[in-house]
Amino acid sequence: KKTNYTDKQYLHVKDNICNIEIYNKSFNHKLILTKGVVTFITGENGSGKTTIAKILSGNITTEENTIKINGIQQEKANSPFVNVLYVPQDLDLMPGTIEENILHYSGINNLNTIKKLLHRFKFDKPLDYEIKGYGHNLSGGQKQKLGVSLTSGKNVDLIIFDEPTKGFDSLGIKIISDYIKEENKEKHIIVISHDEQLINNIPKAQIIDITKHEV
């Protein structure tokens, strides 16, 4: 079945190269996404990096924001786009085991793939570990590893990582760098990060500093 990208549920980012323009009354940002090239968005705190991520993922309503892709204005979205995956800095987990959270967020079909990626990330909690609150008994690094792992096996066109190496050691940064490069072969990847090791580990990348209005 052919995907109808004029539908509000989808963001038209399936093409290998996507010229994107996002604007409203207070800002106008432009970026070019290319499969095989990771896009890093940097900038000072409060410059709007996370806002861009949330608009592109549909986590902020586009009623006040306009998105154009390859010159075509996208439909106004009032819910997250189904073909865009946003991994926030602080993932809200639900009370229950880690496995229950995986099943809730990703479904049973991706369970084994996610297990393998968690092992690769050297995630040190068993799948029957009970999560309290919204993940208050997990460290920042553990939550990030789980959040990144939940992207594995997802049939999406764009993944947006917001500070994915928060709480990672040097080895963890190397592992996530390799994972991002693998995913970037078939998907567009945007990473919001100032992590120099992460950036240096990904040679095929463009760096966009929105503070300097280079977008």
Automatic annotation (TrEMBL):
<keyword id="KW-0547">Nucleotide-binding</keyword>
<dbReference type="InterPro" id="IPR003593">
    <property type="entry name" value="AAA+_ATPase"/>
</dbReference>
<dbReference type="GO" id="GO:0005524">
    <property type="term" value="F:ATP binding"/>
</dbReference>
<dbReference type="InterPro" id="IPR027417">
    <property type="entry name" value="P-loop_NTPase"/>
</dbReference>
<dbReference type="InterPro" id="IPR017871">
    <property type="entry name" value="ABC_transporter-like_CS"/>
</dbReference>
<dbReference type="InterPro" id="IPR003439">
    <property type="entry name" value="ABC_transporter-like_ATP-bd"/>
</dbReference>
<keyword id="KW-0813">Transport</keyword>
<protein>
    <submittedName>
        <fullName>ATP-binding cassette domain-containing protein</fullName>
    </submittedName>
</protein>
<feature type="domain" description="ABC transporter">
    <location>
        <begin position="11"/>
        <end position="211"/>
    </location>
</feature>
<dbReference type="Pfam" id="PF00005">
    <property type="entry name" value="ABC_tran"/>
</dbReference>
<dbReference type="InterPro" id="IPR051782">
    <property type="entry name" value="ABC_Transporter_VariousFunc"/>
</dbReference>
<dbReference type="GO" id="GO:0016887">
    <property type="term" value="F:ATP hydrolysis activity"/>
</dbReference>
<keyword id="KW-0067">ATP-binding</keyword>
